[in-house]
Design brief:
By secondary structure, the chain is an all-alpha fold. It is built from 5 helices and no strands. Helix 3 runs antiparallel to helix 4 and helix 4 runs antiparallel to helix 5. The N and C termini lie far apart (44 Å).
């Protein structure tokens, strides 16, 4: 029911650290943070599912879906991004649907599938850091 002072302090520190990181990040780093958050929340949902903590599982899946819908998908430039942006939108839609199904069925296999789909995209995004010419827009 109550959390310890040290746990509350740690949570507050983490929120401040994240807020500071967001404020200082360039657009590429923000997308990387979204990928990291997505994969971390899918992993946390898997852990909660293994522990039988349904409330935490639902919470982490909900955050993962919001990252997909509002962060990654919302950040796509469909007008200028061409086929790549359209394909990413389809992947994000698919993953959001699969996460919703994983939540309803408490299905770890689907959570693993989403991680397997997103991880290569996140890794590719990480590898292009610093290779984009100055002044070019993200997808």
């Amino acid at each position: 029911m109550f959390t310890s002072v040290s746990a509350r302090s740690a949570n507050a520190y983490q929120r401040v650290s994240i807020d500071a990181g967001i404020a200082q990040a360039d657009p590429h780093q923000l997308i990387q943070m979204l990928f990291d958050g997505l994969l971390n929340n899918v992993g946390a949902a898997r852990g909660a599912l293994a522990r039988g903590d349904i409330k935490a599982k639902c919470h982490h899946i909900s955050i993962a879906v919001r990252i997909l819908e509002e962060g990654l998908k919302g950040g796509l430039n469909l007008a200028d991004g061409g086929e790549l942006a359209a394909n990413l939108q389809n992947v994000y839609d698919y993953c959001a649907l699969r996460l919703t199904l994983a939540n309803a069925r408490s299905d770890d296999d689907i959570l693993q599938e989403v991680s397997r789909v997103i991880a290569p995209i996140a890794d590719g995004w990480k590898q292009i850091a610093g290779t984009r010419p100055a002044g070019t827009r993200l997808m």
